[in-house]
Design a protein that fits this description.
heterodimer; A: alpha/beta; Rossmann fold; 2 domains; 5-stranded mixed sheet; 15 helices; globular; disordered N terminus; disordered C terminus; B: alpha/beta; two-stranded antiparallel sheet; 14 helices
Chain lengths: 369, 381
């Protein structure tokens, strides 16, 4: 079962809707937002004539003019700071950071100004800015082109952090981000740029209200997988594979890391009693850690096992030939599901080497020592 | 006419060019009044002299600005403010820059530009809200057309550029005055701001107040450039340097710079040579990094004294006027003292306002927690 089939068909046997790529859906969202509001402008490195290195802004400068889609000098702090000023003058800038790691020079502007302006000015100056960041790996990219940087932004109060996992969401979440009165970090999973889906019904909508609402992508009764962005697809594949072992797996797509939807996630875990969080980012101090902690705090008495995390390794993003070992794949997710206390044996995974023995009476104490 | 002979102006420079030397700043700071208030003519031939009216207004604003600054420093030393970064000695830069703007223009100040904000007409109590500890910005930026005072150095310059460019794109004739100090010119954002401003021809005037120290670090450790004014050239920005303690020169240069920016010819960078007479803040000890002879030397170049002398010589003001301005400044300070003696009430629940337009569920939970804590505290009293 594919993610698209699971989540995006309505069941009505209409003629097959036109398929677009996620990149095309984002392009369409930009165009529709620019048509709806003359204050929406797009700028960044190579977004105008070239249409961006991923062609996400293809043709927009041609169709909307260089005033509304323009190239900037190559300086990310400058691009973000310029957007702050443009927003203060009444525009709604949608800016592109060319790659995840190339956004780091702009971090001060994002953390000290974009995130705080509303707060600093007691609500007198808000910044409706969308910062689009192609992020994460899985495309064989070289260093500095594959970082999962969402935790930096999610840890910064004042920023909304959004990452679509489906083509339809790429459209609707971006439209909603552009409409939002507050800054949104819009993280586009690079490896999903060429995934396909339909946005026809979404594009007909006039209001969008998905922020703060996680989506149940697949229903199940035994385990909840919580994922976002590029990891949702992995979770869906794992859920599908898990049926062979007799596990009925529910998949929750977080969609908006900020604002975060505790309610949907916790309701799912209360139902299934087990939970694994899947994220591509390095695990330590990541978004998955926050999700796991929140589930423990809210659903402890419904849990049959500790919430486990399947995440990237705690290493700098590896060179392309090794990224398959770094990225959480279906097997690691299935391994985690298998460790969710399906019997009364202790999970020996965290026991010190040589003491692994799931059947000893004091096994858990040994693990904690 | 130019009296300096060491670097003669080429006779072919067209007189209608906004800055006679193209992008190049004058080889020496533009000066109209020497430290005694005598009118001099050095590298200032293409700058019209400011009107007497503007100079009298500048005098009044400088006296009030200085009195405010001294009062704020005193409040900080008394513990009524958490901290205050004074700017006594920099009156000509801060007042001159504000008087060169029209009411609809915007200022993008740093934390040290409080005198400029007073001149802008912002309530001094609102200016001091930040060190008073009640809020991050006490005034309404939109109503006062002034961005919040910025502490991360040079970061707000690029906001000024985006704002000015945005105003231009909207067809509004707004100019942005962007403030930075000598230390701030080392920050990357300073350079990105200059470059963006030049590329987009944004109507911005960058005013570098070179007060010789970044906290304790002297200019010589900050840059090897012959003048900070030269930093505009590489970006294609018309640049100038001016005696920052001569408000007549500051006004002359900035009047022209603002007109240049407003006419769509692009940004201007002006380095104003001045001096911070006091320490970095009330918590700083300037004797650790500079000697009193140096400070005394700059006291002799006082911006207010020289303008006062010139205005008196020209009969534009008299002793009675000087006394009335001094009285006005004292009243201003007395009013400020009185109003600052009242503790500001701050609503604890405002912690959760304005993180987002609509608080997240998590913020609402935390809000409820703090509210119940405070209620319990209240009940146990």
């Amino acid at each position: 079962m594919t993610l698209t089939a699971a989540s995006e068909t309505s069941g009505t046997p209409a003629p097959a809707p036109q398929q677009v790529t996620m990149s095309g859906a984002i392009n369409r969202a930009l165009r529709d937002a620019m048509t709806a509001d003359a204050d929406v402008v797009v700028f960044g490195e190579d977004v105008s004539t070239l249409g961006g290195v991923f062609r996400v802004t293809d043709g927009i400068a041609r169709d909307f003019g260089q005033d509304r889609c323009f190239d900037t000098p190559l300086a990310e702090a400058g691009i973000v700071g310029f957007a702050v000023g443009m927003a203060m003058a009444g525009f709604r800038p949608v800016i592109e950071m060319q790659f995840d790691a190339f956004a780091y020079p702009a971090f001060e502007q994002i953390a000290s100004h974009v995130a705080k302006m509303r707060n600093r000015t007691a609500g007198r100056v808000n910044l409706p800015i969308v910062i689009r960041i192609p992020f994460a790996g899985g495309i064989g990219g070289v260093e500095h082109h594959c970082d999962s940087s969402e935790a930096y932004y999610a840890h910064t109060p004042g920023l909304k952090v959004v990452t679509p996992a489906t083509v339809r969401d790429a459209y609707t979440l971006l439209r909603e981000a552009i409409n939002d009165p507050d800054p949104v970090i819009f993280m586009e999973p690079k490896r999903l740029y060429w995934s396909k889906g339909s946005i026809e019904s979404a594009a007909a909508a006039t209001t969008f209200d998905s922020f703060g609402r996680a989506a149940v992508r697949r229903e199940g009764t035994d385990v909840t997988l919580v994922a976002y962005g590029p990891s949702v697809d992995v979770a869906m594949q794992a859920a599908s594979a898990a049926t062979e072992s007799g596990w009925s797996v529910e998949v929750v797509d977080v969609r908006t890391i900020v604002p975060y939807d505790d309610e949907t996630v916790v309701a799912s875990v209360r139902k299934t009693g087990r939970c694994v969080v899947v994220q591509e980012a390095q695990g330590f101090a990541g978004v998955g850690a926050e999700i796991a902690a929140r589930v423990h705090e809210r659903a402890f008495h419904s849990l049959h096992a500790p919430v486990l995390r399947v995440a990237g390794l705690d290493i700098p993003y590896p060179p392309p030939k090794l990224e398959h070992l770094h990225l959480p794949g279906v097997e690691r997710v299935l391994d985690a599901i298998a460790r969710l206390q399906w019997d009364d044996n202790a999970d020996t995974h965290f026991f010190p080497h040589g003491t692994a023995s799931g059947n000893t009476a004091n096994g858990n104490q040994g693990g904690a020592a | 006419m130019t009296t300096d002979t060491s670097t003669p102006l080429p006779q072919t420079v067209p007189r209608d060019q906004p800055f006679a030397r193209g992008l190049m700043p004058a080889p020496m700071p533009v000066q109209f009044l020497d430290h005694l208030g005598h009118r001099v003519q050095v590298f200032n031939d293409d700058y019209p002299e400011p009107s007497g009216e503007q100079l009298v207004a500048a005098y009044t604003a400088m006296v009030i600005g200085r009195r405010f600054d001294i009062q704020a420093m005193a409040l900080a030393k008394q513990g009524r403010l958490a901290v205050y970064p004074p700017s006594r000695g920099q009156e000509a830069c801060q007042i001159g820059s504000m008087l060169a703007l029209s009411k609809d223009d915007w200022a993008f100040p740093t934390y040290r530009d409080s005198m400029a904000l007073v001149t802008r007409g912002i309530d001094p109590v609102e200016i001091l809200t930040v060190p008073h500890g009640a809020a991050h910005c006490g005034f309404d930026p939109r109503a006062n057309r002034t961005a919040p005072q910025c502490t991360p150095l040079a970061t707000q310059l690029i906001h000024a550029v985006g704002f000015a460019s945005g105003e231009q794109r909207k067809g509004r004739p707004t100019v942005a005055m962007a403030f930075v100090g000598d230390g701030g010119t080392s920050e990357g954002d300073f350079h990105e701001a200059l470059n963006f401003a030049a590329v987009f021809k944004a109507p911005v005037v960058f005013l570098v107040q070179n007060n010789k120290y970044a906290i304790s670090t002297p200019l010589a450790k900050q840059t090897a450039a012959p003048s900070l004014g030269y930093k505009g050239i590489g970006y294609g920005i018309a640049s100038e340097q001016v005696d920052g303690n001569d408000v007549m020169a500051v006004l002359a240069v900035l009047n022209k710079a603002v007109a240049h920016a407003r006419s769509g010819q692009g940004p201007v960078l002006v380095e104003a040579h001045t001096y911070r007479l006091d320490a970095h803040t009330n918590a700083d000890d300037a004797t650790r990094y500079r000697d009193s002879d140096e400070v005394e030397d700059w006291v002799r170049r006082d911006p207010i004294a020289r303008l006062e002398a010139w205005l008196c010589d020209g009969g534009l003001i008299d002793d009675a006027f000087i006394a009335s301005v001094a009285q006005k400044a004292e009243a201003f300070a007395a009013d400020l003292r009185m109003r600052m003696s009242v503790d500001l009430a701050v609503d604890p629940m405002s912690l959760f306002d304005n993180v987002f337009a609509t608080p997240t569920p998590q913020l609402l939970e935390q809000r409820a927690m703090v509210k119940s804590e405070l209620e319990a505290e209240e009940a146990s009293r």
